[in-house]
Amino acid sequence: MRKRILLMLCLGAVPMMAAQQSMPLVTKVPAGKWAIVMHGGAGVIERSSMTPERDAAYRAGLDEAIHAAAKVLDANGSAVDAVEAGLRVLEDNPLFNAGKGAVFSADGRNELDAAIMDGRTMKAGAVAGVTRTKNPISLAKAVMEKSQFVLLSGVGADQFAASVGLQQVDPSYFFTEERWDSLVRQLKREGKPIPPRPAGAPPAPAKPIAQLETPAAHKWGTTGIVVRDRAGNIAAGTTTGGLTGKEFGRIGDSPIIGAGTYASDQSCGVSATGTGEYFIRLTVARTICALVQYKGMRLQDAVNDVIDGQLTAMKGDGGVIAMTPDGQIAWGFNTPGMFRARLVEGGTVQMGIYKDEP
Ligand code: ASP
Description:
With 358 residues, the chain is of the alpha+beta class.
């Protein structure tokens, strides 16, 4: 045994084993098959802070979304349509910080950001700070396909959504008690004023609700998907409520092309989650793809370079999922956990939440 350990040390095998903790089981998807990789947010997600029911509910949510995307691909749909289909499911699931269940801004509003990019055409669409469009990822896709712009914001973005027939809802649709409770607790901690309970929200519960989020864990639940379709095209999308307690119309990295979302058939597709300010300054998604494109790096090495290297050195937190047109799948995160799943045509879903899962 001692001999084996010594040999491993000599061969440099110990660091490799450590790096394998977040290595995907499938690293190369055969040509002609589709593949999906998705995340449901990163943060202080630990077994000790999860109940078995909660753990199972998150996994069921990821499973439902990945199968919605798979259904599109099985019918020979495009990567872009699969990204939209999968993310709509996560937006409709109140567990995730996107669509219904989005976190609240400091003034008690749900302001939603989303982006989608088509690696085949390099077209992109994004929205920031929307408050009435039920599925912001569909709005991002409409911006890409039906407008001459890339990024729309606020009231105008919702108006555009209505003009192209996307479902509009009262802002109270996005309300969940748990996210409201997170906001109130965060604002109390920071000594900031608590906004009035939003109009249209259900009456406050008589008893305090069970909260699983720790102060550091408020970033759970942003969602993103990267897909390669059977034709070998890549698309990526991200949708989020942003950060709890955000102020002054703050916009994160998710709708910023090249920061939280990027796709190019010349390099790779990436969707990010974490404290957006770092991801914007490091242009995380584009940097990963540039390392693949210009330095010829393996995708997982590029992810590790940016997440374990540059992001961590800057004291930023979060993670990414990524895929190349030649079928490499990768993910990486420097937080204790990241909700994540992947599926290759003909295979079974591989899923993880905590750091020690493959
Ligand atoms: N990246 C998102 C933002 O900064 C939040 C998240 O991923 O949890 O808006």
